[in-house]
Structures are given as structure tokens and as C-alpha cells.
Amino acid sequence: MDQEEKRPEETEEMAPEEMGADEVATDEHEEPKGTSGWVIAGLGGLAVLLGVAIVAVLAGALSKDEPAPIEPSGGADDFIVIVQPGQGAVLPVHESISIHGQAGGLFENSLVVQALDAEGNVLAHEPTTTDASEPGGVGSWSVDLVIPAQPGTKGLIFASSTSPEDGQIIASASVEVTYGEANQAVSEIKIDQPKDGAVLDTSVPVTVAGAGRGLFDNNVVVQVLAKTGDVIVQESTTMQTEEVGGVGTWSIDIRIPEGLGMKGTIRAFSTSPQDGSVDAESTVSIQYGEETPPDTSAGIQDLLWSVSSLGGNELVPGSVITMAFTSGEVNGSAGCNNYFGGHALSGNMISFGDFGTTLKACPEPPGLMDQENQYLTELQNAEAYSIDFKGLQMFGSAPPPTLFYNSVVMGTVGFIQPAEIPSGSTLIVQLQDTSLADAPAKVLGETMITDFSVIPILFSISYDPTAIDTRFTYSISARIMDEAGDLILINTSAYSVITRGNPSVVEVIVEPV
Predict the structure, then answer these.
(1) What angle is formed at CA 195 by the lines to CA 189 and CA 196, rounded to 5 degrees?
(2) Alpha carbon distances (Å) from 451 to 263, 418, 456, 457, 506
(3) How far apart are CA 490 and CA 477, in angstroms?
(4) 160-207 pLDDT, tens digit each
(5) Strand partners, 330
(6) What are the phi and psi torsion angles at 46 (to 5°)?
(7) CA–CA dist 296, 205 (Å, integer)
(8) Is 359 exposed, middle or buried (0-12, 13-18, 19+ CB in 10 A)?
(9) What is the pTM of this model?
(10) What is d(CA 54, CA 157) in angstroms, rounded to the nearest whole number?
């Protein structure tokens, strides 16, 4: 670039590195030209003065449309130049803009480009590196920024690089800009009705209303979305304003399908006439009708069942008949032999395939084999079932029920090592709801045993099947009390049962206290 001829009476100009910090941009009585006071206040005097000095040195290069590669001038080892945008440029807001320049002598060729407002607040920033062929070399750099600002906002594009030793700025450049035209239209839309979190009555049309401004042709599109984001209903309306693109309100009544019973989103938006992209939108989260709570009650396949009555008669004393459902198969004990087979469920209807059994013969107690045959026949003929607080009932082709079951937890109580159980002691086994860690366990059922002649000790606890929630946690507690009521043995491990994949048959160990 052309330089003015130096007059004889002027002293020789010092190189930038030979000048004092106070001499770089101006003398102590002269403010730097072309730089407003808010720049220095917002960014710090030192950084801005460095940037102004570098820009001044390279002003000739910047004045060209296609600047040639710039070498460090005035003996400076490091510099940054912003080529685009130019000083005083008006930049578009809310869309990507390209900022590029040149730099040299930077640590790892790295710099950070920031978009700042008049107060020095960072609106957008992006780190980048130059394309220099070697570290610290001279090269070009470029970043794309999306600057969120109100049109007409004054600001600064600031590029800087710092020292790896102390983090101080070693090179910088800046240009004053305006973010958007002051009178640039801003598109906005909001939903005033329904409110966020509202439960909508879908038996009648739902009113969706709101306000907006700067919308193309005053058009508003309203969508009813499922929680997955799928569009259930889409309708269009027009905002009421005194002029196209002005400020106004809008409203539309939408018929939403009944029975959805789920959470979703109401979305209102307007699109750009240039490319159809959304340039304004608003959403509210809502509930379509009263939500149908999920069924978390225990079903026939979730529990272990023990027959309490067969054909209206009690079981043979000492016999136990059970039924459980595992891996799509029904199985259990028929009293003597184990049985297994397929089944099908549809609502409260049930059917069983042919049963397979083990082949034991049990002459004792008397009547056990006849009872087993009767049970398997009645079960084979079952066509429907019901569950209530009393238990499970199986029906044939017509009432009354032929099989009654209790929901049970069964198992044994044993000892790690032989223990002396004083005469008159009692074993208490409980089924407890232990879902709440900070609340006492709720007892759903218990059994008391005083016969310790057979170890381990068998137990069975009946409980109300309708009290079981598949989301909750249940466990077995066992303890042995002496005749005076003092605790002598207790389980020290947790034995979870019934829900969350836990069994209904457990082996419990008690230990001395």
C-alpha cells in the first residue's frame, strides 16, 4: 500500500515491538480514530488497542476485494486480520454467516472468533485454526456463526489468540458491525390456550389460540402431535391483524380423536416464503383426555396358586396341589405327580392342552391318586377364570366354579449350622410389602409354626392376590421367638418374592441374633 512520505522534521517511526504499550495506538492525549468508546469498555483496552493497531497496519490490504496473503508487518511475529465482514457491516441475524481472515505466528495456529454485543456479552463464538502449512505460519481462517440478536443491535466481531503460557491475548482483530436492519421484521408466534400441562376434554372440539407477529400472509399452522411426535391432526388458520405481517391474534377449534388417553404436544408454527422452513413456532405439552392408568395388578400368570377346594370338597389331609405359569407353560404338583402342559389365555377365558405327568404311584395317604386324577380332569375342562380378594376360581362350561386356589408363597426355613430350638418356641414367617425404604414394611400374610421336628421347616403363606402391584417389592421375613417372646434367630439376608422376576418359592436361612 502507498505510504505518505516522511517529512524531515519527523522522527523515525518505531516498529510495533519497540513501542511502549501506551504508544501503540495513540499518544496520551489523543483517542484512537475509528473506534468507539463502548468497544474499549466492553472488551478491555489492551485487546482492542492491539486489534486496532494491526488493522491500521494492514488497512491497505483490507481495502482490496481479494486481499493477497499478508506477511507479518512492522516486525510483528503474530497477527490476526478480519477480511470479512468489513468495518460497519450489517450482518443477518438467526442465519449462518461466514467470517474469515488471515493470521500468523499463532500458537498451534489457533484463534477464537466471537460475536459480541455493545456490552461485551458473547452472542456466539467458534474456535478455528488457520490453514498455515506449519505451526506459527501465515494462513487463512474461516468460521460460520449464527448470531441470535435483535435486529439493529450494535456489536463487534472479535478474533483473538492467547498465549499458552499465561493465557494473555497475543494477537487480536475486531470490526464494528450491526446485527440486522433496525426495521427488519421478526417473526414470532405463541400459544396462549391451552396452557402447558392442560388435560384436554376430547369429547368436544378443543380451542387452540394465541398471538403472533411478522408471519408470512398471517398464516398459522396448528398440529396435534402424539408423544412420539407423529401428527394426529393438522389444521391451518389466519392471524387477525390490521396489516399483513403485523401483530395480531389467532384461534382455531380442532376435533381431536377421543380415547387417546396419552400425553402429547400442541404445536403452532409459520413458514418462510423463501424456502418453506419454519421461521416461528410455539409448543405446549398437554394430555389428551384423562390418562388411563396402566394395569399393574398381578395376573393369573404372575402368581403361584395352591388348590384350596376341589369340586366343592377339601383336599386329602396333608396333600398340596399347586399351579404356576412359566415360559408359556403351566406346571405344578397334582398331589403325587408333577404335571405340565400348554395353555391359552384371552381376557378371562382359558384353555389347557393335554397334560404330561411324572409316573409315581402314591398309595398314601388314601385317596391321593383319585384326587390327582379328578384335579387334572377338572383343570382340563376349565374354560374361564376369575380373581378376587379370596383367590382364583376356575369354571367349566357353566357355573359354579369347580376349582378354588389361594395365591401363596411357599418354601423352607433352615439354618446355616444346627441350632438348638428351645421347647415352646415359635417360627413366624411373613410376606411383607417392602417397597418403601423409609416406611415400616406392610404385612400381607403370615404363618406361625411350632413343630420343629423336621428341618428345614416347610411353610406356606396365603395372601390377597389383588393386593399385589407388579411395580412394588415384596419379601419374606422369618424369625424364631422363644416361649418368653425373646428373639433367638432371624434372617439376615433379603428374600425378594413374587414381582420383578422373583420366585414364589424360596429357601430362607435364619441365624442366631
Answers:
(1) 90
(2) 56, 16, 11, 8, 19
(3) 8
(4) 999 999 999 999 999 999 988 766 557 899 999 999 999 999 889 999
(5) 325, 341
(6) -60, -45
(7) 32
(8) exposed
(9) 0.49
(10) 15
